[in-house]
Amino acid sequence: MASLAHSFFKSEGRKISREAETGSGMRTVRVADSEPGTQDPYQLRPLPNEDVYLFLKSFDNAGVVRQADPAARRVAWKTIGAAGVAAAFLVVMLLPGAYRLLAGYQIDRLKQSREQAVKELRTLEYEEEFQRRMPRMNELAKSKEFAPPTRDQVEFVQPKDSVAQLQNTR
Predict the structure, then answer these.
(1) How far is the C-alpha of 77 from the C-alpha of 105, rounded, in Å?
(2) How buried is 9 (Cβ within 10 angstroms: 0-12 exposed, 13-18 middle, 19+ buried)?
(3) CA-based, 20 to 30 A from 156: which of 9, 41, 68, 131?
(4) For the ranges 21-25, 56-60, 77-81, 155-159, which has the lowest average pLDDT?
């Protein structure tokens, strides 16, 4: 791609050389004429606008200190306070849901413990009924060598001041 500067340098046979001044930090670019017979045939052509003068100055901002702004401190603390209030509001809004979730877990645990207690009660009632059966009682009496009571050993107790009383029929 050809530019205007490129076409001028190509037609005039000029050579571009660079010089740099190190003391002041400035760089300069200079165009020098070349003799027609001394050109290197393998040298690349110059870039477009390579002869443009650029002045670069370096800046050192190490000693610059930002001016204190008293209003910025208040704004920062207000922002921190508002963020804290917003966070507290969010936590307060989420607490009922979390409480409801934990209560659901507790209710589930209580239902499971109730089911376990009911199963245990049924097992104990079954064992008690098994122990109370008359054939079982007779079996236990024989194993422990008990004798059935005689009529004189049995005494029926009647409650006092009751409407229905048993009468002794001897």
Answers:
(1) 41
(2) buried
(3) 131
(4) 21-25
